[in-house]
Write a structure and sequence with these properties.
5-stranded parallel beta sheet, 16 helices
Length: about 375
C-alpha cells in the first residue's frame, strides 16, 4: 500500500500538547511526525512547552516557517507585504501565511493523516484542508471523522452503498439497528447531525468500522492503508482529561494557563491566558490584554508599537485599554462574568471557560 504520513501539529497550547502525549502513549507504533509553525511572536512559555514535549517524546518537533531567507520574523515579513495592515477576525492573513501555507508546504502532495486536538467537550470543527491528500482525524472526540467525510458517507444517495458495506464489518450484533438508522433519510426534520448522533450512540466502534470501509471507495489517504487503530477507540476526552495528561506525563501545563491572583476594589480573582498563539493575538479578551500588560509589559509595549492610525488589535487602542480607570473596569467586568460562569461550570481556569463561551478563534492556531 502507498506510504501514508501521520502528522500532528503542536500549537503550543494545552490541547495539541495533550494530543501528542495521548498518541505517544496509546499508539506508540504509529510513526507520527510532530511539527510546529513558528510566527516568531510566540510567548517564551510556548517554546518551553515544545522543549518539554521533545524530551518526553524523544523526537524532534520540526520547526516550520512561512518565510525562507528573510531577515525578519515571519509575522513581520508578511506585515510588510500587507502594507502594515494588521490581521483581524475578518482578515486573518496571519493564519493563512503563518500556519496553513507552511503546513501544506511541509506535507506537499503526500497522502497525510493530520491529527487534530479538538476536545470532546468542544463544539467546533477545526480546519479541514482543501487538498484531497490531507485527511483530518480528531482522536479526542466521539466522532473522529471530519465534516466532509461524514457528509459524503451519510448523504441520502449513498445509503444503499453504506448498507452493503455493513455486510463487510463486525457489527457487534448491532446490524439490525444500524440498518434501521442508515435507512432513515436526511431531511429538514432529520438532520445529518441527528443521524450521526444516533449512529454513534448505538456503537462508536461499529460506526468507525463502517466509515473506514466506506473510505476504501474514496481517494482519502485512509483508503491507502490496510488498518487504522483509531477506529477501535471509543474514548472521549474533555478539558479535565487534557490537564491530567499534561500533569501526569511531566510535560506540565503551559505557564500562561496558570492562574495569577489580582485584587480590585477589595475583590480577589485570578486571570491567565486562555490559548496559545502570538502574544498580540486579536482574539484575546480584554482581561487577557491586561494580563499581558501586567505580566509581560515588554511584550505589551511591542504590541502597542504595531498599532497605527486606523490599525489596532481590537476595537479600542491598547493605549486606551491600559489607562488605570479602564483596567479597573475590565477587571470588575471580568469578576462579574467569572462569578456567573462559576455557577454553571467548575474549573480553576475561568478564562478558559469564558473563552469557550465566546468562541475559540482560529482553530488552525489554537488546536
Amino acid at each position: 500500500m502507498t506510504k501514508v504520513r501521520h502528522v500532528l501539529g503542536i500549537s503550543g497550547g494545552k490541547d495539541s500538547a495533550a494530543l501528542a502525549i495521548y498518541m505517544f502513549q496509546k499508539y506508540p507504533h504509529l510513526d507520527i511526525e510532530y511539527y510546529t509553525c513558528d510566527t516568531g511572536k510566540e510567548l517564551q512559555e510556548t517554546y518551553d512547552l515544545i522543549d518539554n514535549l521533545e524530551n518526553y517524546l524523544g523526537k524532534k518537533i520540526l520547526l516550520q516557517k512561512g518565510t525562507r531567507n528573510s531577515p525578519e520574523d515571519p509575522f513581520d515579513h508578511f506585515l510588510t507585504i500587507y502594507g502594515g495592515y494588521l490581521p483581524s477576525s475578518m482578515t486573518r492573513w496571519c493564519t493563512k501565511k503563518l500556519k496553513l501555507e507552511p503546513f501544506e508546504d511541509y506535507v506537499g502532495n503526500d497522502p497525510v493523516i493530520s491529527y487534530v486536538g479538538i476536545r470532546g467537550d468542544e463544539d467546533r470543527e477545526g480546519y479541514i484542508s482543501k487538498k484531497n491528500s490531507i485527511q483530518s482525524i480528531f482522536p479526542f472526540r466521539k466522532n473522529i471523522w471530519s465534516e466532509d467525510v461524514i457528509a459524503k458517507a451519510l448523504v441520502n444517495v449513498n445509503t444503499k452503498n453504506m448498507l452493503e458495506y455493513l455486510n463487510d464489518i463486525d457489527t457487534n450484533n448491532k446490524k439490525d439497528r444500524f440498518i434501521e438508522l442508515l435507512n432513515q433519510q436526511l431531511s429538514p426534520n432529520h438532520t445529518q447531525q441527528a443521524k450521526l448522533n444516533l449512529l454513534l450512540d448505538t456503537d462508536i466502534k461499529v460506526f468507525n468500522r463502517l466509515i473506514f470501509r466506506y473510505l476504501k471507495t474514496t481517494d482519502y489517504p485512509l483508503s491507502k492503508v490496510d488498518e487504522f487503530p483509531l477506529i477501535e477507540n471509543d474514548e472521549v476526552l474533555v478539558r479535565d482529561d487534557i490537564f491530567s495528561l499534561l500533569e501526569k506525563s511531566g510535560v506540565g501545563i503551559p505557564a500562561y494557563y496558570k492562574p495569577v491572583e489580582f485584587e480590585v476594589n477589595g475583590k480577589k480573582a485570578t486571570y491567565s491566558r486562555s490559548r496559545s498563539g502570538c502574544f498580540f493575538c486579536f482574539y484575546q479578551q480584554k482581561i487577557e490584554w491586561v494580563w499581558l500588560y501586567e505580566q509581560h509589559p515588554e511584550l505589551f509595549k511591542k504590541a502597542m508599537e504595531y498599532e497605527k492610525d486606523g490599525y489596532s488589535w481590537s476595537e479600542e487602542p491598547l493605549a486606551e485599554l491600559i489607562k488605570p480607570e479602564r483596567i479597573i473596569k475590565i477587571k470588575e467586568e471580568y469578576i462579574k462574568r467569572s462569578e456567573r460562569a462559576s455557577n454553571s461550570k467548575k474549573s480553576s481556569y475561568l478564562v478558559d471557560i469564558l473563552s469557550d463561551a465566546e468562541g475559540d478563534g482560529c482553530a488552525a492556531c489554537f488546536i
